[in-house]
Amino acid sequence: MGYNVNSLGDQFFKDMAWGGLTQTEVFLNGKSQVDKNRIIEVNWVENTLSNQYSVSPKGTKACD
To answer: Is pTM beyond 0.70 here?
Structure first.
């Protein structure tokens, strides 16, 4: 909730999609360590709404 699709760009949404695939062989063996770190960090920040890893959440909490 709260995502401005036009300003975030494709990479953000690709990282979010990869977030559900972090335990797959294609993620573990097919992505560079830099890409894996970015994907994990982006998903962590969005899931927790925390400001970690020098990344700020882009969305807002959908419900309590």
So the answer is: yes
